[in-house]
Amino acid sequence: MKQWQVNLTKKAGKQKEALPKMIKEQLAYLMRDIEVHGPVRGDWPNYGKLGPGRHHCHLKKGKPTYVAVWMERDREIRLIEVTYVGTHEKAPY
């Protein structure tokens, strides 16, 4: 089975750079998990669909809570874009 291609948008790439090391590692693990198993990640904390093709989950619970938001861009090509990574308070949902 063909894997998914997972990219960070330019904005999410900048957001990633400001994250603590542990959260960057969790994000890398999540992106790899999405590549192998696809965008629906019910095995991640507080995973939820935000709408057609939009998903999110927590990278770290507590204060502050860190989340990732991603979108399916092309199911045929199997392309995913991570559009946001950062604290829960600023998440776009």
The percent range for helix content is 25-40%
Ends distance: 32 Å
Q: What is the alpha-carbon Rg in Å?
A: 12 Å
Query: Average pLDDT across residues?
Result: 92
- Integer tally of domains: 1
Sketch the major β-sheet: 5 strands, mixed
Structural class: alpha+beta
Strand content: 35-45%
Q: Strand order, biggest sheet?
A: 1-5-4-3-2
**Order of H and E elements:** EHHEEEE
Unreliable segments of 5+ consecutive residues? none
Q: In DSSP terms, counting alpha (H) and pi (I) runs of 4 or more, how many helices?
A: 2
Task: Outline the structure in words.
- The protein has two helices and five strands; from the N terminus they run βααββββ.
- It has one domain.
- A hairpin with a 2-residue loop joins strand 2 and strand 3.
- Strands 1-5-4-3-2 form a five-stranded mixed β-sheet.
- By secondary structure, it is of the alpha+beta class.
- The chain starts with a strand and ends in a 6-residue tail after the last strand.
- The longest helix is centred in the N-terminal third of the chain and has 17 residues.
- The mean pLDDT is 92.
- Helices cover 27% and strands 35% of the residues.
